[in-house]
Amino acid sequence: MGILNATPDSFSDGGRFIARDAALRHAEQMIAAGVDIIDIGGESTRPGAPPLALDAELERVIPLVDELRDAGVAISIDTYKPEVMAESLAHGADMINDIWGLRLPGALEAVAASDCGLCVMHMIGDPQTMQTAPESAYDDVVADVAQFLAHRVADLESAGVARARISVDPGFGFGKTVEQNYALLADLPRTAPAGVPVLAGMSRKSMLGAVINKPATERLAASVAAAVLAVERGARIVRVHDVAETIDALKVWAAMRAAG
Ligand code: 9MG
Fold it and tell me: What is the pLDDT along the chain (260 residues), one digit of tens a residue?
């Protein structure tokens, strides 16, 4: 899964089209590199990021869905807003990636009637508060995240969502200390209900920066290593910025597996 940030619009129409063009060029590069899913996001989910108004998110996301829906890859929408979910699905999106795990009012209803894929992520609090006190948020981070995800999958199934549509995500960096993130990575298979695919997103995150002591712009090798470690622990989808490099690394891992 390649990350496509729908970059902030400038004030003029010209700027808006330039931003859209840049996003489309980036999408084309990811497709050429072999991406399977493009995850389009209009609102930043970085710790402390302010929420984005509904209209602004729709204006950033929907034109990209229109441009990319026939590009031969699955289109995922990174949103927690039911209105953005519904509108994106109406425009042909294939999957909803919700950092809130479809917990906000209206989210379940927005996806239940479609047959889209879903990613249900674990998060403590919201992006503005989630890193306030993660060290005291869990008894046992792996067991607590696993329990949360199992409950979300059960809730979705009770609402009529087929299990085959659901993937789960421990939410690296979303209300976790560095140590908690690595505990989740080490024990990744234990975070998911049986048979439900895991999505892992660690690309360029601070859990990597904390180990290599480098800024986000210099975390390529660490991001690729994290993706391979996640896949080795059973992740079926890795959400990454650097698609070509990640695919190369995974091909080497797959070749070793095939030989062994
Ligand atoms: C939107 N977003 C940012 N980080 C993410 C992660 O780790 N997983 C998922 N599913 N989405 C994320």
Answer: 999 998 675 444 556 677 888 999 999 999 999 999 999 999 988 888 888 999 999 999 999 999 999 999 999 999 999 999 999 999 999 999 999 999 999 999 999 989 999 999 999 877 777 677 777 789 999 999 999 999 999 999 999 999 999 999 999 999 999 999 999 999 999 999 999 999 999 999 999 999 999 999 999 999 999 999 999 999 999 999 999 999 999 999 999 999 98
Q: Write down the pTM of the prediction.
A: 0.95
Three-state SS for the chain is CEEEECCCCCCCHHHHHHHHHHHHHHHHHHHHHCCCEEEEECCCCCCCCCCCCHHHHHHHHHHHHHHHCCCCCEEEEECCCHHHHHHHHHCCCCEEEECCCCCCCCHHHHHHCCCCEEEEECCCCCCCCCCCCHHHCCCCHHHHHHHHHHHHHHHHHHCCCCHHHEEEECCCCCCCCHHHHHHHHHCHHHHCCCCCCEEECCCCCHHHHHHHCCCHHHCHHHHHHHHHHHHHCCCCEECECCHHHHHHHHHHHHHHHHHC
1 CB under 6 A from ligand 1? no
Dist. CA 46 → ligand 1 center (Å)? 10
